[in-house]
Structures are given as C-alpha cells and as structure tokens.
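Good day; I would like, with your permission, to put a structural problem before you. What I wish to show you is a protein chain and, alongside it, a tokenised description of its three-dimensional fold. Here, with my thanks, is the record as I have it:
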Amino acid sequence: MKIFITMEAQQRRNLLTLFAAGLLFWSSLASMLPALPPYIEDMGGTTQQVGIVMGSFAIGLLVFRQSLGHLADHHSRKLVLLIGTIVVAIAPLGYLFADSMAWLIAIRVFHGVSLAAFTTGYIALVTDLSPVGQRGELIGYMSLVTPLGMALGPALGGLLEAQAGYNAFFLFSGGLGLCGFVCATQVREPQRVQGAQQKTAKLTFKGFWQLLASPRLRIPALVLLLAGLAFGGVSTFSALYIRATNVDLNAGWFFTATAIGSFGMRLIAGRASDYYGRGVFITGSLICYGVALSLFSQAQTPQAFLLIGLIQGSGAGVLLPLMIALISDRSGAHERGRVFSACIAGFDLGIAIAGPVGGTIAQPLGYPGIFLCAAGLIVLALIIFTTQSSKTFSHSLRFALGRERDIYVYREVES
C-alpha cells in the first residue's frame, strides 16, 4: 500500500472516494447472485428461462458499452460512472413489480447498463490516476472493490432474503446502489492533457471491429469472451446447483468464499506483475480457474463448495484485473474508454450466451455438464493465450511464461 502514501492528499482522497463508490456498486450488483435465480424459479421459470433472464443482463452491456466508452473518452469519465450507479440503484426496485418472464428480462437488460457504465468509467478513471510504472499495482488494489463487494453483497443479500423475504432484499440492493451514487458524485475527474483530447477527436471514426481486430487487442478480447462464457455459467447456475444437491449451505457463502480467494490474490498479483510481467500471472490464473470448474462438477459437500470457491476466486481475482492491466498497457489515454468497452464487450457477450446455452445444456446433462463445459472453455482460453498473445508462437509462449516483455506496450509517456 506504499503507493498511496506517496500520493498527494487530494489524489489519495479521490481514489478512496472512488473505491467506496465501487465497493457499494459491486455489493449491490453481487447481492443478486444467490437470490435472483431462485426468485425466477419460484416465479415458475424453467431452468432454461432462468438462463435466459440472467443472460439478458448482458444485452444491456453489449448494446450500450461502446457508446458509453465513446462518452467517457469525449466528455466525462465521471458522468459514465454516475450513470452506472444510478441504474444499479433503480433496477432492483423493478424486480418488486415483476409479474412475467418478459418483465424480468426487460429489467435485467436495464440492469446490465449499470455494469457497462460503471466499469468503463471506473477503469478509465483508475488508469488515468495511476503512475505508469505502478499501474498494475494500483489497478490491483482498486480492483479489490469487486471481491469485497462479491463477499459482502451475496452474504448479506442471501441472509436478508432468507430472513425477511424478497421484497426486503430488493430494497436493500437498491439502497446500496443509491449510496454508491452519492459517493460517485464526490469523485473529482482529473483533467486530461489537450493533446490527448485532440487525438481522441481524430480517432472518432475508428470502428469497433477494426479496434478488436488489431493485433494488440484481439487475443485479450477473445480470452475475455471465453472467460465470460465460463463466468456466466457459474454465476447463473451455481446457486441452483447448490440447492439441487441439498447440501446445508447458503449459496451466498459460496460467493463469499470466491471473493475471499479473489481478494487475497489481487493484493499480491497486481504489484508483482509490474516487475515480472502480466503474462505469467494470466497463465496461472487460467489454470487455477479451469481446475476449480472441473472440481465444481463433482462437489457434493459444503466444505467442497467452499474450497472450490476459494480456488475459483484465486483464478478470477488475477485474471480480470491483469487482463485490464494488459489492455491498459496496450492503449493510450486518448482511446482508453473505447478500448476498454470494446475488449470487455467480449466478456459481456460471453455472459449473454452462457445463460441460455447453459440452460439448454442442463436439460440433458444436468448442472455438472455446465461446469465441465465451462472448464473446457477455460482450457481453450489458456491454449490461445499461451500460443497467440504475441507476434509469433515462440514469443507468445515466452511472454505467457514470464520470460519475455510485452511487445505491444503503448509507448506514449502520459503526463
């Protein structure tokens, strides 16, 4: 945490306020994971309908992510951050009035806009405030809002739903989002240099697919797509699988265990990646994540689910922040909002597909089949990353093992 001590007081206060907004946002969003799939099922939804409703969250992500990235680059990171927090505050209230699957899908799409906006604004602001040489370390620390929120939200939300019912749970989730909005209003956006603003204007017409197809971004985007497919399957069906096994475990505690594993690894990996490179840690995270998903399909006891949650969290806790750091390394300040939104769109698309596809798989193969397929996707992501992440096979392998630097690092020194 030495990096925070060396910062100016205003910059440190700004980051802490941003951190508080992120913690409240993720607590609100993550509180839905253990309660919403059973809520849909209790309303009469089939396994496939649960997958469709949960997966429709990513429609809002996909439709609005690129325009929000453009807004963040051309106008204000803070404005995009505020959009995310106000949507996450309003959306849970919509579930209170849901009386059909169509209504649930509509609210879920709207809810997805919150993640598209918040993550785009938050990541861009954190990167803008990060010293270039310590970017991985600061992104690692600031990304702790995700595991902390994933620990607090599901545990508190699952407990509240069990004790007080769905209505109190949805009001609680909306209240967390409202508190996050209040914190976000206090964030001060750093002024970007004029040169970067002019450069942004020149790149306005650079297409979404052209950006994704560039050598520096296509492999990170593809890895995030495959990771999104796996993550979408786990987040949608793990609570239902735990309930189906009849083990004495509130699903919220599984997500809390995942968050604890994620928290511990983020404290270490971000700073270490500044010295040893991003590649070796991304490779390790994919291996860890794949092992956890393979074990998930065999779990039958509370202890097994909690252990798998820790392993899975350790993998995810390294993969996402370091993929973000890798993308940050490969982009300039003038394009960062659009680059993030384009690459993370792969993760969004994966989540969108995972729900309905997983629901279809669950009918003939059961829930274990979903997790085995997710493990296979992570293995595929590992193969692609270790063989295609640089210009040649040999250089890709050396980069993935921490033996070579990243040749796609953006060279502009930002002030």
About this structure: The radius of gyration is 20 Å.
